[in-house]
């Protein structure tokens, strides 16, 4: 009889882990009141470790790059088991609006150069020739051809289909409590040989060891579509810095444009703040002026799960409980490497070296030193 694995959380991390575990022969149950929603549903879909790199976060960059390398194969396998998740290899540009924003671009480029990732800083004029429609005021930019993007909602649908195809059972309820060998919901107790806690920011409410380690970090996004006669969205992902704040515009194959994302602490409040949306619209127009003529199709907020050092927590947390949360801005990016790690831990292969930096007990170990 194969082992029973119960995954708490059906965002991209929980679904990817459930799919991999089920295809490896485990009996898998996923507990989530709304599979395929949460932060993964709200995400822009950037798979961009280099574009989003920052000095001091080398371990985040390395983990992101490892996972990025697995993305094409992950997407291919998902297409075989379900359908194409909408991976885009069009690439990314980074754009700086004013002189101070251009300085930040310079800092990013120097940093990437120092750690061996050579990138070329280009002028605003060159940027506009690569991406027609960008604002004439943009000062400078960087081209990052290797960073990818994915259609987050198509991905979530594909993962759910792949899970079902591999026999994963879904329990549409909230987990109230988790223990070494069970997940408790309002309607019953789901026994398990192993519990995988992948409930994003809510993981902190379900395990005492995560109370201080993981916190919600709100983000709002705006989705829009060009109206008839409007310039279409940019052909590549645009990551911009405007007045020192990060913004991204991620085009979808069906013509939609995702503009994101705000980032601030607001507890578990998932409401959309008017000022956050105003900022996104204002900055998006400063980067790609045509968006002011677009149809606004959706405004949504979600809660990223953030850790103290912006690295995820992946590994054994307590007896029978494996955690996979705290992915911060990188949940979609980190899905392949996290799912592989969970599979390795289930098979008792221990924590792979490549995710040693994501040891979920690292905060406690640091305190003990
Ligand atoms: N990955 C970008 C964000 O979290 O907004």
TrEMBL record:
GO terms for molecular function: glycine oxidase activity. InterPro entries: FAD-dep_OxRdtase (IPR006076), FAD/NAD-bd_sf (IPR036188), Gly_oxidase_ThiO (IPR012727). Pfam families: DAO (PF01266). Its EC number is 1.4.3.19. It comes from the Bacteria. Pathway: Cofactor biosynthesis; thiamine diphosphate biosynthesis. Residues 5-341 form the FAD dependent oxidoreductase domain. SUPFAM superfamilies: FAD-linked reductases, C-terminal domain, FAD/NAD(P)-binding domain. It catalyses: glycine + O2 + H2O = glyoxylate + H2O2 + NH4(+). The keyword Oxidoreductase applies. Keywords: Oxidoreductase, Thiamine biosynthesis. The keyword Methyltransferase does not apply. PANTHER family: GLYCINE OXIDASE, SARCOSINE DEHYDROGENASE-RELATED. This is glycine oxidase.
